[in-house]
Model the fold of this input.
Amino acid sequence: MRKIQLLAALCFSCFCVQTIIGQTSARIVKRGGTETNATFAREGESGYKKLDRNASNEFVLEIDKSKLGHYTYISPSSRYYTIYVNDGANIILETSGDSIIFKGDNVEENKYVNTYKYLGYTPNDEVKIFSSEWIAARNKEVADLSARVDQTSFSDSFKRLQKAMYKYTDMRLRLEGPVNAIAFRNETPELAPEYFDFLKDLTFEEDEIVLVPKWWMAMEMAFEQMERDGVIPVSTKDYLDLYAKRIKSKKVRSAFLLEILNNTLLKGFSDDFANYLVIADNYMVTDADKAELSAVKEKYAQLTERNKPVARGVIAPDFVAKDINGKEYRLSDYKGKVVLVDFWFTGCSPCKAEMPHLEKIAREMKDENIQFISMSLDTGEGLIQAWKEFIAKKGDETLNLNLPDGFRSPVVKQYLIRGVPRILIVDKEGKIVDAYAKRPSDPKLKKQLEELL
Done:
């Protein structure tokens, strides 16, 4: 059989992981080896943590109760070992080169998780990816792994977690697969008619979902696909309420809403955030949830002040940008039209992954009173040439412009742009509607534009 993995399970994109704070609930102790640092990561989080040896010549990773689940130890030769960590566990790894022996707590469980991982197989090379036969093979693998763990003598909590790992890892990879085909292979994938059928009855009832790597991002992708398929309505104001009502687990519901709120503020801001907070208030269950929501409200208050220059209703700062031939355009040229500006640059893969979605919206709304602008922030001879070559292949569904001075432009400072992609919407009067609009792949962006026209 040929093994197909749609996405690496871990992405190590920075040099440190956020500090684990709070009360220690579990620990991983690594002994042996000759390396000066031991490298660990929490599965599903970008970044990793490098530990130094302590006075006992051990590497000790202290784990907070809110950070239980699965971790990865990366050996000096870059081999990955999964470590199952539950509350109160003291897990010992004895290593020599690339060999590893589990001791302490969860010995058999950790042998199991390293032996029976979900990988995503296809029966043979003739099976087309995303086809009905491919889907059937994936479903069978998840079912077989779930049946196998059910037959073990492990605790019910471990069995539930493993089954959730198999189910929701498959869900995430299935949702990411077509996106990655477009973004990284420049392919338009052909999906089986039943490719997203599993979403129709998905209600997120397992509490263990919150311990699955990248769980909340996978859930967000699932909800957006449900919107595209008409499984749930598309709403620009009340979508969090629609999402919450679909989630059966109260624990998952409150945790998911908190993740969405925190991530919204992490990426920037939203003029509709006060409405989101009202919705979330109705679904907080525990005192810890309520305390975290209070912290979100405080952060929102601070960011509200900081984002006043780009708040809804403010006159949008004008700009001058140039097309591929050097012709100048101003934002003010389009007064009387709704304007969407997509700020990006050629080195940004997520930016380019969103472009087919923006172009699709532009095609579908070509007869509407709206101007779509693709605003490159590339600078320097090499990047400008790369931009021109990219534009030549991209097409003209949007007006393709380059902003002189790129990230050093006063315009970037005026719009408080600290990362891309960044979507700006301006109304017919030249006032800001949304300085932090949804991504083009999110069905709510098109809905928002339709409501303006």
In short: Residues 121-306 form one domain. The CA atoms of residues 2 and 246 lie 36 Å apart.
